Amino acid sequence: MKHAVRLLSTFGLKGAMGELAAQFEAANGARIDADFAPTLGLLERLRQGEMADVLILTREGLDELVAKGAVVAASVVDLARSHVGIAVKAGAVRPDIASEEALRKTLLGARSVAYSRIGASGIFFADLIKRLGIADAINAKATITTGLTAERLITGEADLAVQQISELKQVAGVEIVGPIPTSLQTPVVFSAGRMAASERIEAADAFLKFLGSSDTASVLRAAGLEP
């Protein structure tokens, strides 16, 4: 793909990126070659020398790269906010997670809770269960994964899955119960920027301008994100 814009993106945007990339390609002719992984995994790959034209990471992750000069500060655009939520297998009873106490009881009552090992949601959840005083009990029966946690609902390994809502929605056959109470979490901001070493500056900047425009809002909302 000679004229492709190489994109490294957090899993949180994967659900929206197929349609967004197709829209951009139709309008601009530049192909998007996308690869998805958790933010922390992408940061490690970048530290080891992997290159791309455009990055989509958590704002904190992107700011780290801006500070090192690896991402052009003036290119950075905030795309959407995302909350961590809980999903169950389609047709299962939807548990009560509306309050801190209800969430605690639901987590303790679960056979197994699936959460991410290295994603932003997994780091948040590991801290949350410590704050709730139930870390030992939950981790004794947790299903900790590096992929999409809701897949563990389909396989029967867990009966609750915790991840960014936009990631939970990427798995067919599950239902979103809702976000973890907003009093217990700060939404993650996903941001995009151009790598300083990119040789496709014009196409990369055009893609970033498109991603930051109002034209993407409906696609982002449908994917479980808040533009």
What order do the strands of the largest sheet run in, or round the barrel if closed? Answer: 2-1-3-10-4
Shape: elongated
Instruction: Provide the CATH architecture of the largest domain.
Output: 3-Layer(aba) Sandwich
The CA-CA distance between the termini, in Å, is: 30 Å
Mean pLDDT: 95
CATH topology assignment of the largest domain:
D-Maltodextrin-Binding Protein, domain 2
Largest beta-sheet characterization: 5 strands, mixed
Total separate domains = 2
Look at the structure and give the CATH class of the largest domain. Answer: Alpha Beta
> Which residues form runs of ≥5 with pLDDT under 50?
none
C-alpha Rg, in Å?
18 Å
Strand content: 15-25%
- Looking at how many chains there are and whether they match, the oligomeric state comes to single chain
Short account of what is shown:
This protein is α/β, with parallel strands linked by helices.
What keyword list fits this structure?
single chain; 227 residues; alpha/beta; D-Maltodextrin-Binding Protein, domain 2; 2 domains; 5-stranded mixed sheet; 10 helices; elongated
What does it look like?
There is one protein chain. The chain is of the alpha/beta class and 227 residues long. It folds into 2 domains: 5-81 and 188-222, Periplasmic binding protein-like II (D-Maltodextrin-Binding Protein, domain 2, 3-Layer(aba) Sandwich); 84-184, Periplasmic binding protein-like II (D-Maltodextrin-Binding Protein, domain 2, 3-Layer(aba) Sandwich), CATH 3.40.190. Helices cover 37% and strands 24% of the residues. It has 10 helices and 10 strands. The protein has helices spanning 14-28, 39-47, 59-67, 100-109, 120-131, 135-139, 151-154, 165-168, 201-211, 217-222; strands spanning 5-10, 32-37, 54-58, 77-82, 84-89, 113-116, 143-145, 160-164, 174-179, 188-194. Helix 1 (14-28) links the parallel strand 1 and strand 2 (32-37). The chain starts with a strand and ends in a 5-residue tail after the last helix.
